[in-house]
Structures are given as structure tokens and as C-alpha cells.
Please model this.
Amino acid sequence: MTERTFSIIKPDATERNLTGKVNAVIEDAGLRIVAQRRIKMSRAQAEKFYEIHKERPFFGELVDFMTSGPVVVQVLEGDNAVQRYRDVMGATNPENAAEGTIRKLYARNVGENSVHGSDSAENAKIEIAQFFTDDQIVG
Ligand code: ADP
Ligand code: MG
Model:
């Protein structure tokens, strides 16, 4: 089933000029980048985006990190895109990530872990709508 997921290339990756390398892993996995924009997230945007984690001890650190530099927000499309991208990203903590995954290849640590990907089709819709209008997505 063709579906869409939301992706962010995080500040630790843009800082190291890894946008193209991350995109190559995404495209090699059969996912199509159907929308993409480089932005600096505002605090309000980051706090809203990670609202579900607001009680977690790392929330402040996470918002600081996500607003510390440019990010690339993306919409990815493909067969089972949500799960496929989670597989391509690898485990949250790069120490636990499988070989060949983006986080194994590039993440610095559990916080600065290079990429975000939606965890369900429902959340993908909500997250995409926070950064893109329908006409900005060209499938
Ligand atoms: P994922 O991004 O794999 O879905 P979570 O939803 O659990 O992971 O966490 C969201 C983000 O919060 C992570 O990608 C990471 O940037 C950050 N994070 C998660 N756990 C920790 C932690 N223990 N310490 C610092 N940052 C964390
Ligand atoms: Mg998550």
C-alpha cells in the first residue's frame, strides 16, 4: 500500500553536510522524497511537534537540540512508507541500530540521532500537516 511518512533530517546531520548522504539512503530504500524544505525550527514549532514527550526528562534538551541549527523537513512516499522508513532509520539509540541504517551510519548518540520518522500513519498525517500544505507535496 502506497502511503506517506514525515521525516526530519536533524541539526547534527545538516551541520556535518550529510543531507545528500541521508537522502541517498532514503532513495536507495525505495522511498520517494515528494516534498522537502530546509528550515530553522522555532521553539514553538519544536515544542508542539514533540508535545507527546513533554513529560520526559529529555524534553528540554530535545527542543534545544532541534532548534540549534537548520533541519530538513520532508515527506516520503512509498510502499509501507511509515514502517519502511523506521527500518531504514534504525533504533533510536545508534548503539542498538542495525548495520546500514541511517542512525548506525551517522547518529552521534541517542539524542543527536540524525533523523526523525513518524511512528504511525495517523501521526504521519498530523506531522506532515504541521509543515506542508497539500499543494507543496508533489507525488
Ligand atoms: P524515535 O525518534 O526513534 O521515534 P522517541 O520518539 O522515543 O524516538 O524520541 C524522540 C526523540 O527524542 C529521539 O529521536 C531523540 O532525538 C530524543 N531522545 C529519545 N530518548 C532520549 C534520551 N534518552 N536522551 C536524550 N534524547 C532522547
Ligand atoms: Mg518517536
About this structure: The two ends are 15 Å apart (CA to CA). Strands lie at 2-9, 32-39, 71-79, 115-117. The chain has a mean pLDDT of 98.
